[in-house]
Amino acid sequence: MDLKTFMMTIKRFSSHIVMKLLVMPMALLLFGVTYGSRLGKVNVLGTFILLIFVVLSQFLEHYFYLQQTKKGTINWQSAYPIIALNVLLILLMFPLTNAIFSILALTYFVSILLVYGFFKLRGTLYFIVIQVFLKGLVLTVLSVFMQINFISYELIFATVPILCLLLFYFSEIEKLEVKQYRALHASLSSLNLLSLLGWLGTLSSPIALMRLVLNNYFMLLLWGIAGAIMLKVMLDNKKKTQFAKQKNFMATIFSCVILIYCFI
After folding, report:
1. Given this model, what pLDDT does residue 166 score?
2. Domain count, the chain
3. 199 is in which domain, residue-wise?
4. Does the global pTM surpass 0.70?
């Protein structure tokens, strides 16, 4: 295999739907697991069940999105098996943690149903805010809670770069939606501003929180490269036409940046 073929294979794989449906949920939990493992023993069984729960939730979100964009309504009967399975997973996780964890997990899952199925917030700024909160804060807290059964203020501050990264990610996704469907409530100028704020926050917050020290040149280089790739994505989104592949590629970028942040 020559270099050109290898690069084409990497590009094709990074734009595959598996990046959005499987790799991204794993990345969302990765920081919490690594953070919790520094303070206690990893709960392997509980983390595995939590991963299945998050992956199924991601599949459900994708199903709701396809139903709304293609049919304008949701066929709930097809979603009932996943909903029932996720409720069962929450019950299975209860003995491994406590009631607070189960309430948070249930809140996360019910919020997905409300956002897509009842309030139909997709395409609004409210959707971005809720997604940043759920996937940046709630999922991180759940993955840490699964390991050590308590939450500190330090953890909340440590999630700031993830929240900023998610703000960037969902703003860029919604920009693609505006270009593809031109019927969303969020204006392109608002999305551009949120994306810029997310990019700036992602780059600067690890340094401001003193998680990334300036004399660690290797990690600074990696973080700078991640920021440059994010900037390129932000500028190139104006030209994209293969929307589905670009959304999957965005999930790949998100997962890679999270991976770097886990080791800062």
Report:
1. 96
2. 1
3. 19-262
4. yes
